[in-house]
TrEMBL record:
<dbReference type="InterPro" id="IPR042183">
    <property type="entry name" value="MmgE/PrpD_sf_1"/>
</dbReference>
<keyword id="KW-0732">Signal</keyword>
<dbReference type="InterPro" id="IPR042188">
    <property type="entry name" value="MmgE/PrpD_sf_2"/>
</dbReference>
<dbReference type="InterPro" id="IPR045336">
    <property type="entry name" value="MmgE_PrpD_N"/>
</dbReference>
<comment type="similarity">
    <text>Belongs to the PrpD family.</text>
</comment>
<dbReference type="InterPro" id="IPR045337">
    <property type="entry name" value="MmgE_PrpD_C"/>
</dbReference>
<dbReference type="InterPro" id="IPR005656">
    <property type="entry name" value="MmgE_PrpD"/>
</dbReference>
<protein>
    <recommendedName>
        <fullName>2-methylcitrate dehydratase PrpD</fullName>
    </recommendedName>
</protein>
<feature type="domain" description="MmgE/PrpD N-terminal">
    <location>
        <begin position="4"/>
        <end position="244"/>
    </location>
</feature>
<feature type="signal peptide">
    <location>
        <begin position="1"/>
        <end position="21"/>
    </location>
</feature>
<dbReference type="Pfam" id="PF03972">
    <property type="entry name" value="MmgE_PrpD_N"/>
</dbReference>
<dbReference type="Pfam" id="PF19305">
    <property type="entry name" value="MmgE_PrpD_C"/>
</dbReference>
<feature type="domain" description="MmgE/PrpD C-terminal">
    <location>
        <begin position="265"/>
        <end position="424"/>
    </location>
</feature>
<dbReference type="InterPro" id="IPR036148">
    <property type="entry name" value="MmgE/PrpD_sf"/>
</dbReference>
Amino acid sequence: MATKQLASWALTLQFANLTTPVVDMAVKSLHNWGGCAIGGYHQPVVALVQDAMVPFAAPGNSSLLGIQGFYDAQHVALMNGLASHVDDYDDTHVDTPIHPSGPVASALLAFSEWKGNVTGKDFLTAFVAGLETEMKLGLSVYPEHYDIGWHITSTVGSVGAAVACGKLLNLTQEEMQFAISTASIQVIGMHSSFGTDQKPFHIGRAAQSGLFSAVMAKGGLHGALDGLEDKLGWVNVVSTRNNITDYFNILGKVWETTRNTFKPYPCDRVLHAPIDGWVQVRKQALEQGLSFSSITNITARTNPSVLFLTDNPDPQTGLAAKFSFYHAAAISLLIGQATPTQFSDEVVRNTTIKALSKKVSVIGDKTIPDYSAYVSVTFGNGIVLDTHVEHAIGSLANPLSDDYLRVKFLDQVSKQIGEENAQCAHMAFLNMVDLRDMRELTKTFTSKLTRRDSRRGDPSVYIM
Ligand SMILES: *[C@@H]1O[C@H](CO)[C@@H](O)[C@H](O)[C@H]1NC(C)=O
Ligand SMILES: *[C@@H]1O[C@H](CO)[C@@H](O)[C@H](O)[C@H]1NC(C)=O
Ligand SMILES: *[C@@H]1O[C@H](CO)[C@@H](O)[C@H](O)[C@H]1NC(C)=O
Ligand SMILES: *[C@@H]1O[C@H](CO)[C@@H](O)[C@H](O)[C@H]1NC(C)=O
Ligand SMILES: *[C@@H]1O[C@H](CO)[C@@H](O)[C@H](O)[C@H]1NC(C)=O
Ligand SMILES: *[C@@H]1O[C@H](CO)[C@@H](O)[C@H](O)[C@H]1NC(C)=O
């Protein structure tokens, strides 16, 4: 029943069914995703994949968001998905560690640019259908599925992307079941990739697989009609927990979309609370005129997931440093900022930062939720500064303000495509609900892009 139930719910969902908080959060999520996807093109791994794929990607009308380049929708879904997650700066569902927007938005925008005449309202409705799919599916198997080592964002992402694209394709009920089922067999992503080039690839591939599955369903590819709930289907094969019936019964009654949150810092979400605390301690230390070179000890008492996910004492790359509480502490105290710049390879190699990171330790405490932390720093003469972060910035109870989101977007995007284009992109994403054709959104900034150098390879390959 579950696959059929999801297909039927998604196909009947209309813009008018979406509550105002759902629409608002969907728009914010797409805006935040857009900033990450455009800005993410600065990372070498994105250029590397693009360079390698040039001989295989077909010409098309879908936009690589951070550089001048138009290719077929499947290739663009992969590239924008990769770029949107590479900085680990995207979004997080409160009740699971799913970063929901990446797989769905990356597939849906590329697909809409191919299709043409997709209105902002239809786009948002399909986006919400995809988001709800991912999060309900994730809740049905969390935490067992995640704890065994699956990267839950991508394992549910292909299904969310298939549902979203399938909706725009106006699939029949049965075709949608096949689309869901075909997406579900393309399971991708394990924790072993965290901190490496492979992690953002999970999101790109999930987007691409989802789009592929919807197109294949329209084309007539058949398979299991009950691919999610079958005894040997997705839920039962990838998880020892199966609560899919209960969660799918509340599709459209409880909206997971409103429980999405945006990352304040470009690193694993469990580091946000301790970073918040260390940045506060830095402010106190500056006020008291304490010297950072006198620091002898840095600690955090946090949820044990910080140790499970980020206990890397000696990261060698910016991507690895996104999973290192040692690096996070050192940059928070020495620089007082955690933006993509502080997670670059160059900053990771900085010897002052490396030296301070050796003084950091974390104590896991199950009674502390992952949005809280107690941090403490010992300075010379035994002076101790400490603080308790009850609700980290960006958590559900302390969400990023519109102003923070604007600054975050413009900072990422201006660096990649210039300030003027960044302003256009910012406004276009926030006002998408009124668009008659989603192609207008990307035109506001991609049409003015000039050729940009990649860090690796020949920049001319981007120009079609
Ligand atoms: C791109 O769009 C143009 C104009 O609408 C159309 O003529 C062309 O066939 C499209 N190209 C592809 C590959 O879809
Ligand atoms: C989009 O709609 C316009 C106006 O109705 C029509 O002329 C055009 O052919 C449509 N394009 C596509 C790709 O469906
Ligand atoms: C969608 O498909 C249904 C049949 O499944 C058809 O009645 C309807 O007209 C289609 N809508 C669009 C916009 O193509
Ligand atoms: C299954 O999901 C329902 C609906 O959210 C929830 O009330 C229930 O506690 C869940 N059961 C398990 C075993 O997770
Ligand atoms: C290393 O980081 C410190 C703290 O931000 C900074 O003062 C110093 O200039 C950096 N050193 C190099 C070589 O970049
Ligand atoms: C810092 O203090 C903690 C808790 O007292 C201790 O476990 C840790 O070893 C100390 N670290 C250093 C570098 O002294």
